[in-house]
Amino acid sequence: MxxxxxxxxxxxPAELRPLAEVHAPHAQHVLLAPIPxxxxxxADCDAVVAWSFGAHRVLEAASRGVRFPDKVxxxxxxxxxxxxxxxxxxxxxxxxxxxxxxxxxxxxxALADFRVRAGLALSVVRDELPYSQELLEEGLMRLAEPxxxxxxxxxxxxxxxxxxxxxxxNDPLLHAEGVVDAIKGCVRVEGAGHxxxxxxxxxxxxxx
Length: 208
Description:
The protein has 208 residues and is of the alpha/beta class. The protein contains eight helices and six strands. Strand 5, helix 8 and strand 6 (187-189) form a beta-alpha-beta unit.
């Protein structure tokens, strides 16, 4: 089996590898940053795991008619990210725009700041960018935009058969209730935050 992984904003694909190999040690893994085209690349795999901004990319692609495999796991998904655009996000557009400015001035500090906000481990921060600064900025600009009407309508219709979606009720970036309302079929997980590792189990079990 080949599993496509689409990570969150600012997360190096290499950072996903230990999680992927524990989750499914006998599978082949395609590890992708959440850049334009990543969702379409993951769609060629036998299964997809998409996290945070990566989950947004997958939902957006599906709303445009991209066909995905029958098994898709979305962790911490959302339609719109900013708090002004519906009930999914806790972060304001002003905060995202501030992060854009910080990224231009000191990209490594911007990444570290975001990880703190998201409750992610700082121990994996390196002295190099996880992917290009241009694509990091593109991602933030996309996060600052409201979801398209097509994506909103697609998410409200409900997840396709074989798809699962989960959001933690202690997520520092997302309102779990808002996400569950926006994405029909998404499940709220008590006590979970934003870290992908909180939602994964080995391949002989089930998600959660």
